[in-house]
């Protein structure tokens, strides 16, 4: 995603399914997995796969945890070996490294990447492995589609964590303003009204992001709540300059200049809006649930004071979802891909490993219980929920409206997503800083600019 998008890598960091670096952190994880017994195999029959998620050498604790997780996997998977490398996914070097034979067998990428990689035959088909896994069919359909080629139905990756954007809000400020903290806004009209009611001389009702591609990211989310589309179904045409796109910008502009319920200062990143929320300078922000850990660890916030609600809707009944996905080197042997696949599944979705990791996280004071996982439905998701509840150290009741939301999860657009966000940042900035900005004109200009990107990528 480039240097501008480093925040997305940290935003989409692994949730409670993996902990700080890999599963198996802490004595509980080690003791449990040791009880599973060990198996060995001859060196001649061992297959080794490389993966890019080894933490940086300077983070010795994380490296230790990663290595312990690998050791536990190898003890329970005869003839399979994992070698970690510290080489995070970089879209600017991926294709060159693949061509040069330097790519790991397994890489952790972003939800935005599979369409391009599939179209360029730069990722391995893992259909048989995925469908042979008992929980593949439990994926939320919107999540499964991220890893699937819509033209062929073939599967090219394993999503490992996901988020849905929602509204973080200050419960104390809600009460002081006469609003029910257990009933966050559910419509655009309510959202705008709440923001007006929450503002004061020292507090803004809402703060929005508009830099580092985050303006385009949030615009897409708002567009989904309106029922709009950012691109045509085939990804060949920019469609965000629609009436629904205009309505998104008009709402933000009206809140900023008519209602004066937004912050006077603008050009924020998510890190900025989180700080405003944590320091009681804004009542509501849009954010993913995984930021609870930062809210607590970086700002020592009392999580009892904050709630998370679903995105307010205006006809779309949807919210943007993103996350991380493991992909596999198309030049690797089937045997190496199988080892990598086994490791990804074990490391992320083995319920016993998951439980030991959650116990360790909760014991060490890390946030457990935030609504961070939106990958699955049905029985498997229920099992995950039960484990989370068992080890939760957060006020679960504060997230009930988010957890009970029926809004569909819509993935980020499939083509040149980050360049699209970059084209939209100035548009969002304009309506938040210029009372005379023309939303339709701005969107038309951005759509024309981004259409050139789409045309070039198709040639």
Automatic annotation (TrEMBL):
Highest taxon of source: Bacteria
UniProt xrefs under InterPro entries: Bact_solute-bd_prot1 (IPR050490), SBP (IPR006059), TAT_signal (IPR006311), TAT_signal_bac_arc (IPR019546)
Any one Pfam family match given in the protein's UniProt record, by short name: SBP_bac_1
SUPFAM superfamilies registered for this protein in UniProt: Periplasmic binding protein-like II
NCBIfam families: TAT_signal_seq
Protein name, UniProt field: Extracellular solute-binding protein family 1
């Amino acid at each position: 995603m480039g240097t501008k998008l480093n925040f997305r890598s940290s935003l989409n960091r692994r949730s409670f399914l993996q902990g700080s670096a890999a599963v198996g952190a802490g004595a509980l994880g080690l003791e449990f997995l040791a009880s599973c017994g060990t198996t060995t195999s001859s060196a001649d029959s061992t297959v080794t796969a490389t993966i890019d998620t080894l933490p940086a050498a300077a983070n010795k604790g994380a490296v230790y945890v990663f290595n312990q997780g690998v050791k536990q996997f190898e003890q329970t998977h005869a003839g399979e070996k994992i070698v970690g490398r510290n080489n995070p996914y970089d879209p600017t070097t991926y294709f060159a490294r693949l061509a040069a034979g330097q790519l790991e067998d397994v890489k952790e990428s972003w939800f935005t990447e599979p369409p391009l990689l599939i179209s360029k035959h730069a990722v391995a088909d893992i259909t048989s492995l995925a469908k042979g896994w008992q929980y593949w069919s439990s994926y939320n359909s919107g999540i499964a589609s991220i890893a699937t080629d819509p033209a062929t139905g073939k599967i090219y990756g394993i999503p490992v964590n996901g988020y849905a954007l929602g509204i973080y809000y200050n419960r104390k400020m809600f009460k002081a303003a006469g609003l029910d903290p257990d009933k966050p806004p559910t419509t655009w009209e309510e959202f705008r009204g709440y923001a007006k009611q929450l503002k004061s001389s020292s507090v803004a009702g809402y703060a929005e992001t508009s830099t580092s591609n985050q303006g385009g990211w949030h615009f897409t989310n708002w567009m989904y709540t309106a029922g709009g589309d950012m691109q045509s179904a085939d990804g060949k045409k920019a469609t965000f300059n629609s009436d629904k796109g205009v309505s998104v910008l008009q709402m933000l502009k009206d809140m900023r200049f008519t209602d004066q319920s937004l912050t006077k200062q603008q050009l924020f990143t998510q890190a900025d809006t989180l700080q405003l929320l944590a320091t009681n300078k804004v009542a509501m922000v849009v954010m993913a649930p995984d930021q609870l850990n930062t809210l607590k660890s970086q700002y020592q916030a009392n999580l009892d004071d904050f709630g998370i609600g679903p995105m307010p809707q205006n006809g779309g009944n949807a919210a943007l979802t993103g996350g991380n996905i493991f992909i596999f080197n198309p030049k690797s042997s089937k045997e190496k891909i199988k080892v990598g696949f086994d490791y990804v599944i074990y490391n992320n979705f083995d319920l016993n490993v998951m439980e030991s990791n959650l116990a360790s996280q909760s014991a060490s004071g890390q946030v457990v219980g935030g609504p961070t996982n939106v990958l699955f439905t049905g029985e498997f998701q229920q099992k995950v929920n039960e484990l989370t509840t068992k080890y939760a150290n957060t006020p679960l009741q504060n997230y009930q409206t988010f957890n009970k939301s029926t809004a569909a999860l819509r993935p980020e657009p499939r083509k040149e997503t980050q360049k699209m966000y970059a084209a939209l940042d100035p548009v969002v900035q304009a309506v938040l800083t210029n009372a005379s900005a023309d939303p339709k004109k701005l969107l038309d200009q951005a759509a024309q600019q981004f259409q050139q990107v789409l045309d070039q990528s198709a040639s």
